[in-house]
UniProtKB/TrEMBL annotation:
Natural source organism: Sphingomonas immobilis
Pfam family, any one: MFS_1
Domain Major facilitator superfamily (MFS) profile: residue ranges: 27-512
Membrane topology: Multi-pass membrane protein
InterPro entries according to UniProt: MFS, MFS_dom, MFS_spinster-like, MFS_trans_sf
Primary location: membrane
Subcellular location(s) per record: Membrane
Spans through the membrane: 21-40, 60-78, 99-121, 153-175, 196-214, 261-281, 287-305, 325-348, 360-381, 393-413, 419-441, 453-473, 479-502
Protein name from the UniProt record: MFS transporter
Keyword Nucleotide-binding assigned: no
């Protein structure tokens, strides 16, 4: 599949010189490895949850907040501005900086002695990982042609399952063997195994970052115009961040007009009131404060680009297909990722499986079944796309329908072998639609908007499913005393996802076909000719 993905990707139209035939494959492998570390560092908490709970005295809801909400809130604040920064700067170098940051902060998590300190470390991980999707998606789109992109994205996204599988396997092995290993060294004695796991997972990413930093930006060899920002891209990035964070966001809105400021204040006040109400009802003020900030950041960013870059707004937030795909796929991702996160704690609690045995078994299943699923989904998307631009929608709906029965069996069976079989099926379909969704977003926007389009789409999905999914399952589990009930209750979101995706069936082909016309109508000065 890798060779098929790079065929015709090595000689792009509009390039000053062709890439060496092997080079796109090399870049794709580096990005897939970076994505592996991305999900390794992000999901390692899943296998460490029980140990962290015991050592730091935290609840399921706090673990869900730590793994989901805090990540999503920071991703919302930095993710979309990071996409704009990637479109205005050297994308591989920015990716290398981000990988260095999140790897270093993962290692720093191993020094946490309190919930607050661990939360601070995860903030750094979130900021670093905000570079991953905008930069990687744009780099891949620059090195590969549209008819190969779904397969290329499938290779890249296979790193999700390799990373999550490694997180479970590495975490399980370290938890099981750390006591015996550390006893041989006096300076390690007394160090909890979960802290050592963070060190082991964080440090290797720093080496990979050096290799990615040296990759050429694919836009440098293209004759198609690339938008160059006035002044330093980093100053623009800081201005974008300031525009989505109160109180500086109020001043930014005021510069665009009184009406913009009024709507900004109304949105801020409404979200603050809603967050305060939900905090009083649930007692989880960190959760709802973070989610309130994330939602406000999305609103403020949409306001900002509507004023600063009308063509970009028209092809993202202003496009009906973009909105339908975001809401529909967010609902499916929220269900699947929440169930996947809590599957490991459920296995350990229900079947009394050791962390080493359960982590290694689940890790192998996840890496193999999940990787095969996303590869199959990417290949199917490229085949179907040749005759139907709605391939991503059909694949997403199919994956949801196939994963649901497996999830029900997984959280209701009393037999561990049946659990593993159901988990294998669920892992195969859980994210098999991701490559096709990444590819279709690149077709909805112009080349100069690739990183921002990918960053906005992935950010909206990540905020919704990470900020709500793990927390909601953890909260329902805490209230009802049933982790199985809390997990399966997530399927209440399924009708929302199905409705929006079926609406997108009618709009995607037309919105792809007239993207240049709509951008030109909003003032696009020079349309890029290279896909």
């Amino acid at each position: 599949m890798l060779q098929q993905a790079i065929d015709a990707g090595s000689t792009r139209p509009g390039t000053a010189r062709p890439y060496a035939r092997w080079y796109p494959a090399y870049v794709l492998i580096l990005l897939a490895l970076a994505n592996t570390f991305n999900y390794l560092d992000r999901n390692i908490i899943s296998i460490l949850a029980e140990a962290i709970k015991a050592d730091l005295k935290v609840s399921d809801a706090q673990i869900g907040f730590l793994n989901g909400t805090i990540f999503a809130a920071l991703y919302a604040i930095f993710g979309m501005p990071m996409g704009r920064l990637a479109d205005r700067s050297n994308q591989p170098r920015l990716m290398g900086i981000g990988l260095s940051l999140w790897s270093a902060m993962t290692a720093f998590s191993g020094f946490a002695s309190s919930f607050a300190m661990l939360s601070l470390a995860r903030v750094g991980v979130s900021v670093g990982e905000a570079t991953a999707n905008p930069c990687s998606h744009a780099i891949i789109a620059g090195y590969f042609q549209p008819v190969q992109r779904a397969r290329a994205y499938a290779v890249y996204l296979a790193g999700i399952f390799l990373g999550m599988g490694c997180a479970l396997a590495i975490g399980g092995v370290v938890l099981h063997n750390w006591a015996a290993f550390s006893a041989q060294f006096s300076f390690l004695q007394g160090t909890p195994a979960w802290k050592a796991t963070f060190w082991i997972c964080g440090i290797p990413g720093l080496i990979l970052a050096l290799l990615i930093f040296r990759v050429p930006d694919p836009r440098a060899a293209q004759t198609a115009a690339v938008t160059v920002s006035k002044g330093s891209p980093w100053i623009g990035f800081l201005a974008d961040v300031a525009a989505v964070l109160p109180p500086t966001s109020f001043f930014a809105a005021a510069r665009r007009g009184r009406g913009v400021l009024v709507w900004n204040l109304i949105a801020g006040a409404g979200l603050a009131a809603l967050a305060a109400t939900l905090s009083m009802l649930t007692g989880d003020w960190q959760q709802w404060t973070a989610l309130g900030f994330a939602t406000y950041a999305v609103f403020a960013f949409a306001q900002m680009i509507r004023w600063q870059d009308k063509p970009l707004f028209a092809l993202t937030f202003g496009t009906r297909s973009f909105r339908y795909l975001v809401i529909g796929m967010s609902a499916i991702a929220c269900i699947h990722n929440a169930l996947l996160f809590w599957a490991v704690p459920y296995l350990l609690r229900t079947f009394k499986i050791s962390a080493a045995s359960g982590g290694v078994t689940m890790g192998i299943i996840l890496a193999l079944a999940g990787g095969l699923g996303i590869a199959a989904g990417g290949y199917a998307a490229d085949v179907i796309r040749r005759r139907d631009l709605r391939a991503s929608i059909w694949i997403t709906l199919t994956c949801m329908a196939a994963a649901m029965p497996a999830a029900v069996v997984m959280f209701t069976t009393g037999d561990v072998d049946t659990f593993y079989v159901a988990f294998t099926i669920f892992a195969f379909f859980h994210n098999a639609w991701a490559a096709s969704s990444a590819a279709v977003i690149q077709e909805l926007v112009l080349p100069r908007m690739r990183a921002t389009g990918a960053g906005s789409f992935s950010m909206l999905i990540i905020v919704s499913n990470f900020a709500l999914g793990p927390y909601l399952v953890g909260k329902v589990s805490t209230v009802t005393g049933s982790l199985a009930f809390g997990s399966l209750a997530m399927y209440a979101l399924a009708p929302v996802g199905i409705y929006c995706l079926l609406r997108a069936v009618r709009t995607v082909p037309a919105d792809i076909a007239d993207r240049e016309a709509r951008a030109h109508a909003r003032g696009e000065a020079q349309l890029a000719t290279s896909l």
